[in-house]
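cron nightly-structures :: item 1 of 1
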Amino acid sequence: MAEHSQPIEDLVRTLGPEQQEAVRRFIEALVSKGNNAPACEPAFRWEGALSDMRERFTSVELQHALLAARTDRP
């Protein structure tokens, strides 16, 4: 990352009010985006849960059954 000679606050102060507001909105968007990041990697505890059905159904058949179950709900 390149070094900057002026702190961000000083640079923002040189902008007009509309530009400062745009910077504020941009920073708020970055902050809210960062807060929505997952705290940790998913555990995938469900992995292999349907392995006993491997001999009876293909993965495509299970996908179709799940889709049908979702669309049948009111």
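cron nightly-structures :: done
The chain has a mean pLDDT of 84.
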